[in-house]
Amino acid sequence: MNKAQLILLALIALIVIKIVRQLIKRKIYTQEFLGWFIFWGVVAYIVINPQFTQFLAEKMGIGRGADLIVYFSLIFIYYALFHIFAKQKEMEQSITVLGREIAIAGAKDYTKDKNLKS
After folding, report:
1. How many independent structural domains does the chain possess?
2. Does a structural domain hold residue 54?
3. Range of 10's domain?
4. pLDDT in tens, 50-98
5. What is d(CA 104, CA 54) in angstroms, rounded to the nearest whole number?
6. For 20-45, what is each residue's pLDDT tens digit?
7. What is the DSSP letter of 27?
8. Looking at the structure, do residues 77 and 38 belong to the same domain, yes or no?
9. CB of 73 within 8 A of CB of 34?
């Protein structure tokens, strides 16, 4: 095993430790933990056995294993960005609705207090 593999495996170990801490602190759900744990397990396997990506690339008609990783990484990143933007839009709409409800409730309380004082 070369130095780059050792460094990458150490980084993966640190990431997995962080994910475990997130699970313990209940900042992520068990399903999210399992998804990320499997993902980083696959990444660790690829770091240890880089020829596996070459094998997959050849089966898919792609020249190099590194190209395969880049293609899948780009797809994953763009999907994640789409998901984040969709969630952000959903949160903005929820905040708008909540703000309106608070404003209406505040206005009702204000007019109610105003009527009592008259």
Report:
1. 2
2. no
3. 1-49
4. 999 999 999 999 989 999 999 999 999 999 999 999 999 999 999 999 9
5. 61
6. 999 999 999 999 999 999 999 999 99
7. S
8. no
9. no
